[in-house]
Amino acid sequence: MLLICTASHGKNKDLADTIWSQARADGIDCELCDLTRYSIPLYTSRSEDNDADVDELDALFGRAKAFFVLAPEYNGSIPPSLTNAIAWLSTRSHDFRTLFNGKPVAIGTHSGGQGQKVLIAMRIQFAHLGCHVVGRELLTSSSKPVKSASIEAILSEIRKLGHL
User: Candidates 1.20.120.1630, 3.90.550.10, 3.40.50.300, 3.40.50.360; correct CATH number of 7-160?
Assistant: First the structure.
């Protein structure tokens, strides 16, 4: 299963919906995860004992064989919703490493600016988690709409890795 994960409910959610539709049309089993729908408190070392319910996220990430993560650029980096979800998963998952190790991840953004900084930050973050980050990334903006050929090329790359 391909988990298409968005870290915002705006243009990146629209982009996730487009990718989900194209993946489904291509016969790929996929699920959509909008991190902004989860009410997870801010992770801090003091909040580790919190009763935050991350079981649903843990199960969703655990079922995935590959990821396509879309996030806007927040102050030149990854948005808090994505960082927070990863922080909680790393402390609450039954086996955090199996959530990410060896799984392919494609990254993308719809950005009002350049968008390169969030793509670099996500590439570093997911490589650190043990993912195989797909070389081609998706970068769209209001002046550069998404092309279905670009989505198809990225989905094809994930398929080549033999996970879908």
Answer: 3.40.50.360
pTM of structure:
0.95
Cα dihedral 103/68/128/99 (nearest 10): -50
Q: In 3D, which of 130, 10, 149 has the Cα closest to residue 73?
A: 10
DSSP secondary structure letter of residue 7: S
Q: Which residues of the chain have pLDDT under 50?
A: none
Among the listed residues 163, 44, 29, 158, the one whose alpha carbon sits nearest the alpha carbon of residue 106: 158
The conformation of residue 133, written as its DSSP 8-state character, comes to: E
Report d(CA 46, CA 134) in Å as an integer: 35
